[in-house]
Design brief:
It contains six helices and 24 strands. The chain is of the alpha+beta class. The chain has three domains: 115 residues, no CATH class; 126 residues; 100 residues, Dna Ligase, domain 1. The strands form five sheets. An eight-stranded antiparallel sheet has the order 17-20-24-23-22-21-18-19. A hairpin with a 7-residue loop joins β8 and β9.
Length: 352
Amino acid sequence: MRFAALAFTLLLASCVSYVVDYIDFVKANGITFVGGYTTDDRLGRALTDADLGAEQFRVKQSLASANKGPGYQLSDGDAAFVGVGEPVYAVTGYAPTFRLAARRDGRLVLYEADTNPAARTGRDLLDIEGKVVGIALVSGKDGRTILGRITDRSRIDELVRLVVSAPVDQSPPQAATSPQTPLPTPTTAIQIRTYGFSVAFELADGTATRRNYDLASGVLHRGILVAGAFRLAVEELVAAAPTPTPFPSTINLTRRYDLARAIRVTIKARPTASSQDPSLLTKLATALDTELPATPTSPGVGDGPVILFEFADHYVSLLYERDSNLLRVGVPDDELAVRPSAEVRALLDSLR
C-alpha cells in the first residue's frame, strides 16, 4: 500500500529520461481519491454494480498513457489508470467527498479521499459516522490478518466520534506510518514493529475502510490528528494481539513448500546471469528434503544466487546469503531462513 506521494520520478543514471509511476487515483472537485488501501476481497467485500450511485464525471485524462512529466499538476478529471471517457460514480450510502467508484480494466475499483485541501475535521475525509460495526487491528505484513477487534457498540461509536471530530492537517508530508512507541513483547510485537499495522473500520454494508495509524504521533492517514482515547484503544489491541505459534527449530523446505512438484527452477546469479538447468530442480529438491536448522528473520536481500521454484500458479524464491550462510525464504514472506547443509551449500557455491 503506497500512501505518500501520487507520483515519483525514477532518474536513470547518466540519462535525461524519466519514468513516472502513478498510484491508482482519480481527482474531482479538488479532492484526490486513491484506490488500494480501501476494501477488496481480502478485507470486507468487493464493490458490485448495486453499490454504484449517480455518475459524478467522466475521466478527461489518463496519466498512465498521457506521457506527462514529473512536474505535472493534477487537475479535476484526471486519473492514473481509468480510461479516458470512463464514468466515475458515487457509492451508494456515502458522501462523494469520501468514496467514488470506477471501472479499471473491467473491474470495479473503490476510491477513497486521500487529499482534500478543504478538509478541516475527520468527517471531511471519512463518511463513516453511524456506519461502523467493528474496528479491527490489521497486520501490515499481509494487509488482511486481523490481530484484534473492537465490537462493543458504545465503544465503537465513541471512537468513531473521536475520529470524525478530530482536526485534520494535510499540509506537511505524512511520514510512513508505523508504530514508533515501545510495544509489548512477546506476542506479535516483532511483526508489528517490522511491518506496522493499519486500523480497519468495518462497515454495516459489508465493506471496510483501512487506514494506517502512527502510534507515536497519533495521526490516522491522511492527516487526521486523533490521539488520546483512540490511541489508547489501539494500544490495547496491540497489547492483546495473539501469541504466535512457537518457531520450529528445524524446517524441511522441500516438504513445507512442495518443491519437488515445481515445474522448473530458475537460478539468478548476480549481476545478471540466469539459468534453467533441468537437472538442478531434482538436485535442489532432494538436497533440501531434510530437516535444516531454522531461524526467524526479517525481510532482506541475499548476496548469493536467487533460486525460483516455479509452479503453475505461484512460485517460491530462496535467497542465499553467503556471508551469514543462511538460505532465506523470500516468497512467500514467512520470515524464516535455514542453515544449508554441506550438500546444499556445495550446490549453491557452484552457481557463482
